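Dear support,

I submitted the protein below through the web form. The confirmation email said the job was done, but the results page showed an empty box. After a refresh the structure appeared. I'm attaching both so you can tell me whether what I see now is the final result or a partial one.
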Amino acid sequence: MNYVISGQVLKGDSYGRKIGFPTVNLKTEAKDVPPNGVYAGTGTLEGKTYRAGIVIGPGDRIEAHLIGYDGDAYGKEVVLQINKFLREFKKFDTEEELIAQIKKDLKYC
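What the results page shows now:
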């Protein structure tokens, strides 16, 4: 599996930041994207590459937590390389369950 998706970072709802895992949300014209799910990969932003947890979600949602990135990415170009499928996309009953799962997912990234 090797998908590369690039696009401009746009403002999301800041939920990831609220729970301790800020994400870059992509606006992309890419047509060849993997099925909905959670993936391990990398994200390149401003010439630096970060390990990344990447979510392909409903409604063409593409977002990634770039491990170690703590800047303002709005309006900038990011390139995501999707390397490995981790799990199917799912909704969680509680915020605590979601946070616990994200921590597990990021260990594989």
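Response: this is the final, complete result; the empty box was a page-load delay. The first strand starts at residue 3 and ends at 10.
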